[in-house]
Amino acid sequence: MARYTLECVECGRSFSDDTLLKCPECGGLLEVSLDYDEIEVDRETLERRDLGVWTFRELLPVSTDDPVTMGEGGTGLHPCPRLAEELGVRSLYVKNEGENPTGSFKDRGMTVGVTKAVELGAEVVACASTGNTSASLAAYAARAGITCAVLLPAGKVALGKLAQALFHGARVVPVDGNFDDALAVVRRLAEEGLVYLLNSVNPFRLCGQRTIAYEICLQMDWSVPDAVVVPVGNAGNISAIWQGFLDLYELGLIDDLPRMYGVQAEGARPVVDAIRSGKEDIDPDPEPETVATAIRIGNPVNAVKALRAIRSSGGWAVSVTDDEILEAQRELATTEGIFVEPASAASIAGLRKLVDRGEIDEGEEVVCVTTGHGLKDPEIVMETCELPEPVEPDPERIKERLGLG
Ligand code: F0G
Fold first, then answer.
1. Whose CA is nearest to atom 6 of ligand 1?
2. Which of 217, 275, 364, 396 is 20 to 30 A removed from 27 (C-alpha atoms)?
């Protein structure tokens, strides 16, 4: 069991009250700070276990031996030689988070976050979501036997994600507004003590997402890639992944750290603008818009942490257009067989841009994190594919259609 405190990312004060979701002194975000001296892990022990979030149980801030789990994590780190050649890098791996139980990286956070919610005796868990968080929370709440409430930006959630949230029995409320509006409301409900909040302001949830970094290192035999490219929405994931690398570095399990690169959509890019202009914080965008609905976020709550992660790692942030995202989505599917949703493809489109601009060198080793499965958003795919007319089951006609013989 990990020894830890909750540390405020603004004022640096530490707390040991697990019910806190923000700093009682200054209102800043809280982060789990592991007591590295108290944690005993070594490479061989970790390697012997089946790969997944709970492989790293010594680093996870819960005290039960009976977590709410569905075998999350353990996703593939796929070498992508054809795409690497296309994009002009020596070596490219895709860490494919679509392979998680509900089809996105959110499950890593929810197995830890919902386990903590149960530990704290929560009866209603809640989130605002662009879709994946709600799908994941709905599933883990069902598994834990507790009530789930989700607030979604009306008309802007991909079909697969909506179906998941509804089907797992969550109380779903579409909100006339965007994700940022919905998050403001659900934070208020949490402050009133009506729900336990599982958005990425929840420090325990983000510890689960650190395991993306833990797994990458283990899968690469404890070497570290030069660059890690991550799509950015509410900015929790890139911060968590960076903290994951720092944890392993502090524990002496790795000897290097990667540069972290964030990718946003052109129409929702407050983090990119802040990086470009050298600002300490973002200017929120009141009207974010992109085909990649998962990252259609104008006021990311974890922005300050993400800016620090990107800067202190020596990385950068870029934005990509909707066309570039959709082209990268198709390219990954057709050259490497990996089907991801548009937000995830932003990492591939972003890598292309980073290589073109010389941010990432052609001799480097890169990991792109693809965050959600392509089947989450079938509608966007069908908009770009033409459905062929049916023909009779006649071999000659079919050969003709297939261009064979
Ligand atoms: N990719 C996908 C597929 C996502 O669903 C999200 C976030 C991100 C990337 C960005 O991650 O927010 O940690 O920077 N989806 C959230 C949701 C906002 O509600 O499902 P982030």
1. 294
2. 275
What are the two backbone dihedrals, phi and then psi, of residue 340, each rounded to the nearest 5 degrees? Answer: -125, 165
Tell me the per-residue pLDDT of 232-281, one tens digit each, with 9 for 90 and over.
Answer: 999 999 999 999 999 999 999 999 999 999 999 999 999 999 999 999 99
CATH of domain 77-102+205-384: 3.40.50.1100
List, for residues 168-177, the tens digit of each pLDDT value.
999 999 999 9
The C-alpha angle 123, 126, 130, rounded to 5 degrees, equals: 160
pLDDT at 127: 98
Residue 32: how many CA atoms within 13 Å on its side-chain side? 29
What's the Cα-to-Cα distance from 71 to each of 96, 209, 266, rounded to whole Å?
A: 15, 14, 35
Q: Tell me the two tokens of residue 82.
A: 């054809």
Whole-model pTM: value is: 0.98
d(CA 244, CA 132): 21
Distance from C-alpha of 138 to C-alpha of 281, rounded to nearest angstrom: 32
The Cα 384–Cα 159 span in angstroms is 16
Pairing assessment for the beta strands 4-8 and 91-96 based on DSSP bridges: unpaired
Task: Confirm or reject: Cβ of 129 under 6 Å from ligand 1.
Answer: yes
Which segments of 119-170 are extended strands (E)?
124-128, 147-153
CB 271 within 8 A of CB 282: yes
Rounded CA gap, 59 and 214, in Å?
10
Mutational test site, ligand 1, from 134, 150, 156, 237, max ligand atoms within 8 Å of CB: 237
Strands 30-34 and 124-128: unpaired
Give the Å distance between the CA of 50 and the centre of ligand 1: 26
Q: Band of the pLDDT at 1, cuts 50, 70, 90?
A: low
Q: 231 CB less than 6 Å from ligand 1? A: yes
Sign of the Cα torsion 355, 357, 362, 368 reads: negative
CA-to-CA distance for 385 and 329, rounded, in angstroms? 13
**Which of helix, strand or coil describes residue 10?**
coil
Q: Tell me the β-bridge partners of 171.
A: 149
